[in-house]
Amino acid sequence: MKNLIKDLMRSKAGLIGAILLLLIVFVAVFAPFLDLPDPTRGDLRARLAGPTWDGLFSPGAHPLGTDEVGRDILSRMIHGSRVTLLVATTAVVLGGIVGTALGIWAGYKGGLVDRVLMRLVDIQLAIPLMLLALLVVAALGPSLRNVVLVLALTSWIRYARIIRAQVLSLREREFVQSAHAIGASTMRIMFFHILPNVLTPALVVGTLELARIIIMDSALSFLGLGVQPPTPSWGRMLADGRVYISSAWWTVTFPGLAIVLTVLSVNLFGDWLRDYFDPKTRNKK
Amino acid sequence: MTQPNVLEAKNLMRSFGGGTGFFDRNKPVIHAINGVSFEIAEGETLGLVGESGSGKSTIGRAVLQLEKPDSGSVKFRGTELTTLSPPQLKPYRKHMQMIFQDPYSALNPRMKVGNFVAEPLVVHQVESGSALTDRVAELFQTVGLDPSFMSRYPHEFSGGQRQRINIARAIALNPAFIVADEPITALDVSIQAQIVNLFQDLQDQLGLAYLFIAHDLSMVRYLCSRVAVMLRGRIVELAPTEQIFADPRHPYTQSLLAAIPVPDPDRKHRPRIPFNVARNIPPRDAPMIEVSPGHYVLDQEIQ
Ligand SMILES: Nc1ncnc2c1ncn2[C@@H]1O[C@H](COP(=O)(O)OP(=O)(O)O)[C@@H](O)[C@H]1O
Ligand SMILES: [Mg+2]
């Protein structure tokens, strides 16, 4: 842990990513305690008001402007981040658990499970993920739960492929043979000897997936298939604001910036994490 | 020397490659072991010596049923093991263990070494709770490690210490028989003798039988009562250790003996005996003949 932090301090990109990410998460978590205007209530007298720093701390100030029905953009962005982060992390964790479990099973046991899994991977790789997500959400109907399920569905295979490859080499290691030699059951070997040794790659895949899923979640809500109004979401804000892009640039710029910054910080952090755990790049330092 | 046999292996065969699929059809078949027979008495050490790739590890895995042989028989105290299912094998796994060549790859990097040593006791439900901890501490002491190391992870240990941890795990269930697959090859020369001594002490204390695998004859001399010399998947000579050293019959055994470094300066200029392994594949059906009591040689080109 100490090494981890020391190494992070040395990596400029990783540190920036980590700080940004912490900031975003912090704001999202504590949004209810910030004195923000109601993100769902509009003020028609103040519709499409531009960003202004005048009277920043007075009630009714809109530092990042308002949208077409006069709702505060800053407040909607912050509340939108709560939904996006919640959806994305749940999907990443869900996809991670399923993908890791199946990857371990396929890699260690081989046989039918492995063959079926690999065919599924081939099929999913051939279908654009966005199309798959659209189909499923359209079929199940848009809701918070369905969006999470769909995003996890597009994600588990990435874990499964990488974990399976790791397991193929792990199971030839002598400590796995040794567990076999003492009479340990397959379940025991998978749980105590394989799983702890694939957690690191799973974590690395997880951060990279988080970035991809945030984008995909925004795209889904942009298309109206994400969480439903009046709950604010970044993608929805982009979709609603794009009509006014020439007259009220702030309606799309700030939510767009939020997506870019979040994805960027996750990616910066994830890249550093991957390098940190990859012995090949690590030893060069 | 009239102990009953703890282990009997008869006519073991195992080959790799030569797939039946579209892409691997033309892969050559490797006969990793090609008709190998030996037996080991209770409390005895049989040395198994041969160059890398001669099939020693494959024999070790086949004997312990980690990898089923293609054919042949393995009997533990008279029970045929090759026909048993994994659940039927489990009780026998208590009595047979393996120690691996690479002490780095043999430990789970994500498991505390105390839990690693305790695992066989947990799997076979021999001990639990504080009795388990006490037993593991005792095992650490037996192999010459401080019991306070129990809660550490493998990366904190040296090669020799790791091999001691592996040995502690292997003896946890008081086995009758251990396959030690080149257990000292990867260690510093200064550590090798210590580990060999540990093997000997444990044998005296616990009455263990070993199949001790090595790639040259130097350490085997101190540890083994009999030695089997392997060449390309076959045992070409098997004899009591003194016989192997005093009267080697197979040319490959003679070349192995000539390769042992000699500390005695007068004998420094011993001629090297060249032996072309590639051109001396032991014939598949050549029989072993007994040239003197307990001394068997492959009937090939005895000198
Ligand atoms: N799992 C395997 N797949 C394919 N070939 C193998 C496998 N295990 C061993 N072999 C081959 O069998 C031969 C004997 O190997 P091994 O028993 O490891 O020899 P040793 O332990 O004497 O060095 C070698 O040619 C090796 O390449
Ligand atoms: Mg070997």
UniProtKB/TrEMBL annotation, chain A:
Xref: Pfam families: BPD_transp_1, OppC_N
Domain of life: Bacteria
Subcellular location: Cell membrane
Bilayer-crossing regions: 12-34, 85-108, 120-140, 201-227, 248-270
PROSITE patterns: ABC_TM1
GO cellular component: plasma membrane
Gene Ontology terms describing biological process: peptide transport; protein transport; transmembrane transport
Listed name of the protein: Peptide/nickel transport system permease protein
Organism: Pacificibacter maritimus
TrEMBL record, chain B:
SMART domains per UniProt: AAA
One protein family per Pfam: ABC_tran
Gene Ontology CC, one term: plasma membrane
Nucleotide-binding keyword on record: yes
SUPFAM superfamilies: P-loop containing nucleoside triphosphate hydrolases
Domain ABC transporter per the UniProt entry, residue ranges: 7-257
Family membership: Belongs to the ABC transporter superfamily.
Organism: Pacificibacter maritimus
Topology class, membrane: Peripheral membrane protein
Keywords, sorted A to Z: ATP-binding, Nucleotide-binding, Transport
GO biological process: peptide transport; transmembrane transport
GO molecular function: ATP binding; ATP hydrolysis activity
The UniProt record lists the keyword Nucleotide-binding: yes
Record-linked PANTHER family: D,D-DIPEPTIDE TRANSPORT ATP-BINDING PROTEIN DDPF-RELATED (PTHR43776:SF7), TRANSPORT ATP-BINDING PROTEIN (PTHR43776)
Protein name per Swiss-Prot or TrEMBL: Peptide/nickel transport system ATP-binding protein
Subcellular location: Cell inner membrane
